[in-house]
Amino acid sequence: MQIAIYSRVSGDVNAGNVQRLLDELLNHGIAPVLYRPFYERVSAQLPQHSEPALFSSAADLKGRVEFLISMGGDGTLLDTVSFVRDTNIPIIGINFGRLGFLASIGKDDIHTLVQALIDRNFVIDKRGMLHLDANIPLFGEVPYALNEFTIHKKDTSAMIRIHMYLNGEFLNTYWADGLIVTTPTGSTAYSLSCGGPVVFPDTGSLVITPVAPHNLNVRPIVVPDHNIISFEVEGRSDQFLCTLDSRIETVDRQVQLAVRKEVFTLSLLRLQEANFMNTLRNKLLWGIDKRN
């Protein structure tokens, strides 16, 4: 068994955290494959053994590893989408960030995680993703997202106007700072902070949430995920920002954009006792009286 380990070069994960995970894996005869830029940052603080196997790109993982462990927060786990792509390599996140909806394993539970991988005592959830179509190349070989697609004004200038269509039929014009289209997985991220609903991950839907809309009667809307959602953008600036998860592009307003459900899914691994309702209660403090 080979397991890939990814973490951000600029993240909070230190050599001690990495060594704990490496020790657990090596004690069970599991060969780790580390993300090269991250390993180069922490290698001087690790015990001087032989250099582990390393990866730098998606091609380095395909057909080589069985699982990918993300060490960091939810943003770090979202980075791994660019490495896993359509290979269905299951991803599991060890949370070194703050909230951790996706990175669900506590940093004190590394032993439990490794034992669960060995015993095959886990659940794999298939998560739908978004695909971006445009009349120019955008986002290289990874034009898809696990959480959300957004359109946003580029600077502190006036709001933009976003004309939105469902399957070619006009739905609404948003006078706003931006617009979010999110998967059920992403409903607990940026969309939630802008007043969007929480949607269960296995719901076949997309959520459209405006960012700071000028019209107060405009509210988030939930649509079936078989729709193709397209946009026309107007504003005083000739450019606006377009994002897929944490990746960002500056786009001319003449560019044609549309999002749809991606044809493949992402595999997220969780332990048996973890589920979405537990995550909501624990992360959002539901069911807890905080008045005292």
Automatic annotation (TrEMBL):
Which major enzyme category is it?
Answer: transferase
EC assignment: 2.7.1.23
Q: Which Pfam families match?
A: NAD_kinase, NAD_kinase_C
Subcellular localization, per the record?
Cytoplasm
Q: Which residues bind NAD(+)?
A: 74-75, 147-148, 177, 188-193, 212
Tell me the active site.
Answer: 74 (proton acceptor)
Q: What is its main location?
A: cytoplasm
Q: Does the keyword ATP-binding apply?
A: yes
Per its UniProt record, the required cofactor names are: a divalent metal cation
User: Which GO terms fall under molecular function for this chain's record?
Assistant: kinase activity
Q: Which UniProt keywords apply?
A: ATP-binding, Cytoplasm, Kinase, NAD, NADP, Nucleotide-binding, Transferase
Catalytic activity reported: NAD(+) + ATP = ADP + NADP(+) + H(+)
Function comment: Involved in the regulation of the intracellular balance of NAD and NADP, and is a key enzyme in the biosynthesis of NADP. Catalyzes specifically the phosphorylation on 2'-hydroxyl of the adenosine moiety of NAD to yield NADP.
Family of this protein? Belongs to the NAD kinase family.
Listed name of the protein: NAD kinase
Please name the gene that encodes this protein: nadK
